[in-house]
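Intended use. Records like the one below are meant for learning the mapping from a protein sequence to its folded structure. Do not use them to infer anything beyond what is encoded.
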Amino acid sequence: MSLFTLSLTLGFVALAMALSYALKLGLERDMLVATVRATIQLLIVGYVLKAVFDVKGPVLVSLMILLMLAAATQNARKRGAPLRGIAWRILVSIGITEAISLALLLGLHMIQPTPRYVIPISGMIIGNSMINGGLFLNRLKAETAQRKAEVLVLLALGGTPKQAIRDVLKASIRASMIPTIDSNKTIGLVQLPGMMTGLIIAGADPIDAVRYQLLIVFSIMAAAALTSILLGFLTYPVLFNEHQQLIDFS
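Structure written out for the chain above:
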């Protein structure tokens, strides 16, 4: 694709901004900022990945993964802003999920241990884990506020914080995983996933593209479950004070 052809795709952005202006949605500025940021960030990442692929060193690959983990943590922590020490809890949850996923992928020889495979797949796992973490934290705060009386009754009856918050945690974990599960149910029917589409456009055999896409789909589903469960068990103690009383974050 030439730079001229790429520049023409800005017409899609212009159309979206025009519709936002016509309907007075007030999203024009956000769309413009998102477009500029996406362009700059992707260009930078493209040049960085080119350098990493040329060097093929484990140190640079590790640094790229750490950078992705840091960015994901920074973004997801906004969803749990009132919660004490939420940043390191998110980092640990996503970090463990990434480590387990990568260990299985490499240990079972599903992917080659090269930057060309490790970095993009790690990015997909970390990115989706970040989204699941944010969804979980949003739902946890909402469920806790909505079912506050229920939690207080269980505490008053002698239940531990873990027992009192168990149903809230289960509901939050379930809600955070629904988008991933629903997306996978319609994959191939409603949408052709990005990785599969990219491979096909690049000239790969469609069957090979499907195999790689299934690898990603199954990895992301497992990562969603791991992230939500780990983050849930690491986060619920923050909802209570040292006297095992529910903290009001509203």
